[in-house]
Amino acid sequence: MDDTAPGTFRDPDLPTPDRVADLLSRLTRAEKIALLHQHQAPVPRLRIDGFRTGTEALHGVAWLGPATAFPQAVGLGATWDPDLVRRVGAAVGDEVRAFHHKDPDAVGLNVWAPVVNPLRDPRWGRNEEGYAEDPWLTGVLGTAYAAGLRGDHPVYLRTAPTLKHFLGYNNETDRDRTSSDLPPRVLHEYELPAFRAPIAAGAAVAVMASYNLVNGRPAHLSPLIAGELRTWTTDDVLVVGDAGAVTNIANSQRYHPDHVAGFGAALRAGIDCFTEDDDRAGPTIGRITEALERGLVDESDVDNAVRHILAIRLRLGEFDPPARNPYAAVTADVVNCPAHRRLARDAARRSVVLLQNHGDLLPLRPQQTVAVLGPLGDTVLADWYSGTLPYAVTARAGLADRLGPDAVRFAEGVDRITLRTTAGPVQAGPDGEPLRIGDGTGTGFDVVDWGAGTVTLRAVDSGRYVRADETGALVDDRPGPGEWIVRETFEPVRCGTGTLLRHVAADRYVRVGDDGVLRADAATPQEATGFVVDLVTDGIEAAVAVARAADVAVVVLGNHPMVGGRETEDRADLALPPTQEALLRAVHAVNPRTVLVLTSSYPYAVGWAHDHLPAVLWTAHGGQEYGSALADVLLGGTPDGEPVEPTGRLPQTWYRADADLPDLLDYDIVGSDATYLYFRGTPLYPFGHGLGYTRFAYRDLRLSADTVDADGQVEISVDVVNVGDRPGEEVVQFYTRQRRSRVKQPLRRLRGFRRVRLAPGERATVSLPLRAADLAFFDVNSDRPVVESARHTVAVGRSCTDLTATTTLTVRGATVAPRDPATAAVRAAGRDDEYATVLTDEGPEHGDAVTAVRDGAWLSFAGVEIGPGIRRATLRAAAPAGGTRVELRLRDPLSGPVAAVFEVPATPARHTWTEVTAALTGPAGVHDLYLTLGSAGATVSALAFVGSAADPAGKGTSTQ
């Protein structure tokens, strides 16, 4: 066959589906299977090159050499500026194209970004990677970034953006073994919308499955891949596996008995591309081939996956003349070009959030001396996906460049120490040789506290950080923590013989060997060496001296993105590192004109700062232009004299304490009152919060109509006036709340926002369309979104709790009927409330059920109708050895009248069910029902009512 003839896959004038079908027909089975790995093999006989997925581009091109480094994704989220985020995505996409142009074999055009997991819990180690805790805002910003990466050409993709991580992924703790419980409402109202928006808009063309399980089933086997995400568009969607995740199905997850079964199940579920064994495709090819031979998959499953892969490759222009593809000509000149540097500064500037500003301490006045203090005051830190910064402007450098070096003084505020034993002091060896016991005064080390008892040690002479190498020997040869396994962190442990050092990564204590070398190889404290710590310089005292002599103190604190909360490690709490907190308090004690700049990947519980400091700002780690952008905000203007407002707004709630949060693994935000949607407490700083340097007033909130049908739309309008004395930009936020409902509703929900820039005294009308359909909730009875007849409070303001005006909208929708188990079974997973249960998989491929984790667990179902002719109830259930008793009660799970008793026999294997029928007693009518599960391990799937002709009570049938 001639692959250059008209009507073939190389004909750019044919529709993509026709070209894909032609190419697919030319491939052998072996060639198709070889395309299912991340590193796709070339097909020389068709002149098709190799292809690889997975260029990291979260907020800049990562791991390929210097490239423009933009603020972390959570910082981009804080901009609340979709147009800016789209422009950042376009710049990153162009730089990916430039690297690909230079080395097409090493740099692929399938990019793994953006991350659209809503930021449900601020302790998540990867909090920095997401945009917001609100699913709608996450979807808007994720769509914007993906649209920039994708480009706006009607035929060709700039890059192929891949949404991460599908689905329910917000914990690093045992991430490949924990299951995220997603009841139907949480799934459809919170988790899915952020993924749906970029796919439905055509901005993202691929999705990565997540490491975790969802309702007891590995996410890589989720029926939602086919049942949801591939229904949101008519285009082909490429689904890639996360690194090593399909291997986990038979390994850590033990869901299938062997890798062949696991890989086959993943392919059937919709995984198209397997990210396994680095660049070694052999194991994946062998397992898929054997799955075919064993009949676990069909060749049609392979064809479906290859079709998705080829469609993306065609849209990237791989098989077309370069002259037809405008992105093919992008060269290295675009990498870190002046336009991208300006964009990086603008993005960093617009991501700064002013949390408080008492007494108008900010912006800083001219001719002031400024003390820049703290461990983040003269450094710019990168996270795992930041890439290589081409340069870095620190907070100190940014202010010194604007105010002059004589006006800016710096102190890091960290202790400098030496270590010694009875045999002598610890000395760093030359040229990165191991630390050992030597003579003289010993080497000085700067100790930086990163929280949770973790510190780093930086050798003063070399400026390099101490790590334990692969042999355990301590060496000072690193610029800082930065590898996948962080070997530069230690935990000081006080004991009777001095201070022990525990190497965190190895979980080994440091001891001095017979050769005098320090090694982290002691398994117990008893085997470790105790060190005497001599304080050379008190970091807080040094910082206090500098602060005392300055007009204003700017204390820059926060996290190291590679320490503590990061990929593979969740945060233990929300507290500032103790030494950083002590530094802040000491500085404020001598200089009340103290500004706290928190530079972090996540929120902190900084209650003391909130109560005592005049000014607090937050910014994510801001990339290469961080210091210049921060100086623009602190000084209220650019070097050219253009006024600058802090226009960032918080993309997630800042809580006062850990106690305000549910368990990290509790994904049921409705039941646990989590996120700004349901949180009933008083936050430290609310979702949407952010101040500026001028003031705005909101007047005359109004609706185009005060009543609307379920398929209708109204316009919300409000007048906004700048009542301050300088120009400024406001983020006008619109929220709604449904006042009455059959189900628990959010306390407030963001419906949209508008930016408006006004001169002093200027007024503008800000409007937002509101579709009644967007007010729907997911009804578990009908298994679809429903708009209820109800009144809604419509509010406008500066944050989710600072709502300056409200009005009422009446919606003419549906009256939700009571559940009727005689018509359709009540699904256990659709419970309204629960105690001591978890969601689990009903079968290996589809369905959800509920399992008791302790005796006496229960489920509740509100408003269930028991018709007058109903005399029996049937329960689909499973039980551990010995069987179990399940009671159906009215009104209360413990003391309510018993309406039915189900004696469930033991079921022989997982995913084996029995249906048990019992006599039903009690009055007809609408009742709140409870299923009380007698023993841990009892599992229920569905409850149905039947008439008097039902099978006798107790009769059961086993089903697979």
TrEMBL record:
GO terms for biological process: arabinan catabolic process; xylan catabolic process. It comes from the Bacteria. Residues 824-946 form the CBM6 domain. This is Exo-alpha-(1->6)-L-arabinopyranosidase. Catalyzes the hydrolysis of a non-reducing terminal alpha-L-arabinopyranosidic linkage in ginsenoside Rb2 (alpha-L-arabinopyranosyl-(1->6)-alpha-D-glucopyranosyl) to release alpha-D-glucopyranosyl (Rd). It is not able to hydrolyze alpha-L-arabinofuranosyl-(1->6)-alpha-D-glucopyranosyl (Rc). Belongs to the glycosyl hydrolase 3 family. GO terms for molecular function: alpha-L-arabinofuranosidase activity; beta-glucosidase activity; carbohydrate binding; xylan 1,4-beta-xylosidase activity. Keywords: Hydrolase, Signal. It holds the Pfam family Glyco_hydro_3_C. CDD domains: beta-trefoil_FSCN_BglX-like (cd23343), CBM6_xylanase-like (cd04084). InterPro entries: Actin-crosslinking, BXL, CBM6, Cellulose-bd_IV, Fn3-like, Galactose-bd-like_sf, GH, Glyco_hydro_3_C.
